[in-house]
Amino acid sequence: MVENVILDRFDQALLECLRVNNQTSARVLARQVGLSESAVLRRLRNLRKNGVIVADVSLVHPSVLGTPLTIHVLVSLEREGTAALDAFEQKVRGRQEVQGAWYVTGEVDFVLQLQVSGMGAYERFTREVFHDDPNVRAFRTIITLRDVVSFHRPRL
């Protein structure tokens, strides 16, 4: 389980390299972190097996996919019982617009990150997901003007 995994400085260095580019070859990674190629491959295999590396993905620019508009939504529910939370979570998991969803503490219950083609698509989403759900008390919309820092961009 991930909670029991201890990462040494080589594992941390490997993960930082992969966070920037998961297509980096084992040979290049070995040179970057100061290990042999076989040691890098063994460590990567263990990091995946232990759930430290959850997925190897390609991040595609949203404009190419026809969804250039990033919207964050703060959602407050009427009730937070287990059944109500599970129902809302299931609903947002099934929507392709939802790129991220977090159950949070504070004044709101969920924060959603959406990628949509435009305001018309967002309005359809709000009608289907929020307005038609009697357990959604309120939602606030935050429109992204410009991507400043994202998890997929390397730190400079």
From TrEMBL:
Key word Transcription present: yes
Native organism: Teichococcus globiformis
Signal sequence segment: none
SUPFAM superfamilies: Dimeric alpha+beta barrel (SSF54909), Winged helix' DNA-binding domain (SSF46785)
Alphabetical list of SMART domains matching this protein: HTH_ASNC
Matches recorded under InterPro entries: AsnC-type_HTH_dom, Dimeric_a/b-barrel, Tscrpt_reg_AsnC-like, Tscrpt_reg_AsnC/Lrp_C, WH-like_DNA-bd_sf, WH_DNA-bd_sf
PANTHER family: LEUCINE-RESPONSIVE REGULATORY PROTEIN, TRANSCRIPTIONAL REGULATOR AZLB
PROSITE patterns linked to this entry: HTH_ASNC_2
Name of the protein in its database record: Lrp/AsnC family transcriptional regulator
Pfam families xref list: AsnC_trans_reg, HTH_24
Residue intervals of the HTH asnC-type domain: 7-68
Keywords: DNA-binding, Transcription, Transcription regulation
